[in-house]
Design brief:
Length: 270
């Protein structure tokens, strides 16, 4: 993919950086991870960087509206496909091999790759994710607190653990493959969740967290984000009235405003 130049004039009233989009790969063991990096032009030699993780069955393109808005404000943003994250994933791997923990390993591989890039401000790396990608970002941030400046969680799917425990009483009840929501997954997707306390895991992250959730979400209940707010040492929950699972229009614009306010505050505090 050739770099794509967006003609945005920093001198306009809504000052913004032009940016380019380039392919950038990471690797987890023998699997190649596909992604694209949004690079602001003229924002400095070292830029604060956001790693965006898509949700269940999604892909790197889910992050495009957020990446475009953040890049125009001087943030480098990396969006990638999880291995087996969807049937159409551009990364290696099958949906039958994927779980929240393989995605954590993918994100850790991405984090290691991003830290090696010469334009990345290693002191200001943020994780951001939607739905299952939000849950993966949360557990990864907790496991790598020293490397992650902050976390932005959009309708994070902590409910995955509760759903698995309700669906399967024991590991013996999990079939080799089964249909979950809108795609086929393997037994590994649920097996390791049966004895997992995701709220205990994420509570290890002590830095500032931003959570954004719609109060009309029928896939991931708002109460799960409210519970996360209780276990985090320092977190803020912003609620979008009437918003469902996924933001668009004014809801997305408001979410972006909250995200930029959060990021700017973290950078100023550095």
């Amino acid at each position: 993919m050739p770099a794509q130049q967006r003609a945005v004039d920093p001198q306009t009233e809504n000052a913004a950086y032009p940016y380019v989009i380039q392919q950038l790969y990471a690797r987890r063991d023998d699997k190649r991870i596909y992604g694209v990096i949004y690079l602001p032009q003229g924002a400095g030699e070292k830029m604060p960087t956001v790693i965006f993780s898509h949700g269940f069955g999604g892909n790197y393109q889910v992050g495009a509206p957020y990446a475009e808005a953040l890049a125009q404000k001087g943030y480098a943003v990396y969006c990638f496909d999880f291995c087996g994250g969807s049937p159409g994933s551009k990364s290696d791997g099958s949906t039958l091999e994927m779980s929240i923990f393989t995605e954590q390993t993918d994100l850790e591989a991405v984090l290691n790759m991003i830290r090696q890039q010469p334009y990345v401000d290693d002191d200001n790396i943020f994780l951001m994710g939607t739905s299952m990608g939000g849950a993966v970002s949360a557990i990864t941030a907790a496991a790598h607190e020293n490397e992650i400046k902050g976390a932005i969680l959009l309708y994070p799917a902590f409910v995955l653990v509760e759903d698995a425990k309700e669906q399967f009483k024991s590991a013996a009840d999990i079939p080799e493959t089964y249909y979950h929501m809108w795609m086929t997954v393997g037994r590994v997707f649920a097996e390791d969740l049966l004895d997992y306390d995701i709220y205990e895991a994420i509570s290890a992250y002590k830095k500032d967290v931003l959570i954004i959730h719609g109060d009309a979400d029928t896939i991931v209940p708002l109460r799960d984000s409210e519970r996360a707010l209780e276990v985090y040492d320092s977190a803020r929950l912003e609620v979008l009235p009437g918003a469902g699972h996924g933001f668009s229009g004014e809801d997305a614009e408001q979410a972006i405003r909250w995200i930029l306010t959060y990021l700017d505050a973290q950078i100023q505090r550095a």
